[in-house]
Design goal:
Elements: E1 11-15, H1 20-31, E2 35-40, H2 43-57, E3 61-65, H3 71-81, E4 87-92, H4 107-135, E5 138-143, H5 158-176, E6 181-186, H6 195-199, H7 214-227, E7 231-232, H8 236-247, H9 250-256, H10 263-268
Parallel strand pairs: 1-2, 1-4, 2-3, 4-5, 5-6, 6-7
Bound molecules: NADP nicotinamide-adenine-dinucleotide phosphate.
Amino acid sequence: MSSEQRPSPGSALITGATAGIGAAYARRLAADGWDLVLVARDAERLDTVAADLTGRHGRRVEVIPADLSTEDGCAAVERRLSAEPPVELLVNNAGHSANRSFVQSTAEVETRLLRLNVHAVMRLSLAALRPMTQRGRGAVINVSSVSGFAPIMPGSTYPASKAWVTNFSESIGQSVRPFGVRVMAVCPGYTRTEFHSRAGINTSGLPGWAWLQADDVVTDSLRDLHKGKFVSVPSWRYKVAVAALRHAPRRLLQAVTRDTRGRLRRDAA
Ligand SMILES: NC(=O)c1ccc[n+]([C@@H]2O[C@H](COP(=O)([O-])OP(=O)(O)OC[C@H]3O[C@@H](n4cnc5c(N)ncnc54)[C@H](OP(=O)(O)O)[C@@H]3O)[C@@H](O)[C@H]2O)c1
């Protein structure tokens, strides 16, 4: 049966859907027969991605150009989450790193990070989960990070924002499970996307084995969602790393983690 003839499992809304992990979710879900609602800031790029997915898979693809670090951006996506056809799967994927030491940062930069990585996730989850619990079905995937399991990048507030996403997802996931709704955090390690170049992070010293592919992150996360997990850590390499982060004594972690990117030194220069 071709993808055009397949019945649609419903509509999925993906934030940050034009690049990296979000684009991989869009490709995979369209191939699986989902209709899509794609969110990102760059309207032209959204239209290109939407046309490509419609052409390849014959699915209905809506776009919402929105900056989720703003009030207007969150409100626009909230409106879609309470409209028809209902969104059966929300993927809160858009996120970014400020890549600077907190003491050299500004309130504006840190607020923007929290608004995108934390506030938007809270707002859109709330907007999606109310109708999902009423219908008795639906799922929310929140894209977090392995860095959220411990303060492994001293000076960076990015891991703290992702710690919130993971903790939030596990907590809310347990509360909505009795209503037939799932919430899961997916915690990737280093993944080849535009994320590091956008943030100006130099990854040239990272070994090849440390890198994940966005398509594999998506495959693992959807399998874990199907299994009913609250937290998904793609790839055995990062499962081992997370087990170590969770169980290593804090003092040992503090001894081995350091300001590896020299954020404070560079910022001060
Ligand atoms: N890559 C990694 O190594 C890695 C590891 C762990 C976790 N993660 C997490 O994975 C998620 C996706 O990251 P990625 O690596 O796929 O990043 P990416 O390749 O840089 O893609 C980011 C996507 O988010 C959109 N976006 C950025 N800022 C936005 C805003 N203010 N409002 C709406 N959309 C926005 C971008 O489009 P526009 O620029 O057009 O808005 C783009 O579609 C993030 O939450 C990130 O923290 C990434």
